[in-house]
Amino acid sequence: MSDKVFLITGASSGIGAATARAASQAGYRLVLAARSEEKLQALAAEAGGDGRAVAVVTDVTSWEDNERLAAAALEAFGRIDVSFVNAGFGGKRSFHPDEADTVEHWREMVLTNVLGAALTVRATLPAVLASKGHILLTSSVAGRIAIPGSLYSSTKWAVTGMGQSLRAEVAGTGVRVTLIEPGMVDTPFFDNRPQAALQDDDIANAVMYAVAQPAHVDVSEILVRPTSQPV
User: Fold this and answer.
1) How do residues 151-178 score in pLDDT, each as one tens digit?
2) How, if at all, do strands 176-182 and 29-34 pair?
3) How far, CA to CA in Å, does 173 sit from each of 130, 136, 168?
């Protein structure tokens, strides 16, 4: 049981699930976290089940859930080599009360995308330091370019800053930090999507590229856009 351990939040679908499959194929053992137990269990079974993957139902906005997630990884496999802080979701583009999402949607989005990411980093960092491992955070093109009327964009700017702050903190420890910044992925989230949007597997490939580099190479940011995306 010497294979490295890859922890993923937001693992039940989309980029998280695609990355779980890619990491499993690369020989990693998996710790899968999300709110959907049924989807997590199915993905864990697909990855080999007991001894190869564990599913941990997790609300990343809860510190106790993040603590339990990290503890479950250590109990099952004794280590965390990669922590992929990926859980998050978006919303409508408007600050106008007649056009925007509900205040409750905003609150949940900010708590998940920003606080949830920070809590997962906090909970998994000691184990990643011990393994001289890798932390990756899912930001966005929207975390590099302000999207008009988008509170989601604001949350991803926060994640971009979080990744840069974390990298500065762990410099010299052997831990690597990578920001993954997707452009338009094939979901209904974006208006006026390009004809050839990215697929979840495209982002998973970027994640696996970063983690596959030699220990002395830290790929700090990967910004991935469809060829046809102008911004």
Assistant:
1) 999 999 999 999 999 999 999 999 999 9
2) unpaired
3) 9, 16, 10
Q: Please state, in angstroms and rounded to a whole number, the distance separating the CA atoms of residues 226 and 214.
A: 27
Q: Within 10 A of 37 (CB to CB), how many other CB atoms are there?
A: 12
28 labelled catalytic: no
Cα–Cα nearest to 46, from 10, 20, 82: 20
Query: For residues 91 and 104, what is the distance between their CA atoms, to the nearest angstrom?
Result: 11
CA 203 to chain centre: 11
| pLDDT number for residue 194 | 52
> Which of 63, 112, 120 has its CA nearest to residue 91?
112
Of the residues 152, 179, 206, 207, only one is catalytic, namely 152
216 has pLDDT over 80: yes
Domains, the chain, with CATH or none: 5-224 (3.40.50.720)
Beta-ladder partners of 185: 198
Provide the residue type at 45 as one letter. A
Of the candidates 192, 163, 15, the one whose C-alpha atom is nearest the C-alpha of residue 93 is 192
Compute the C-alpha angle 68/11/211, nearest 5°.
95
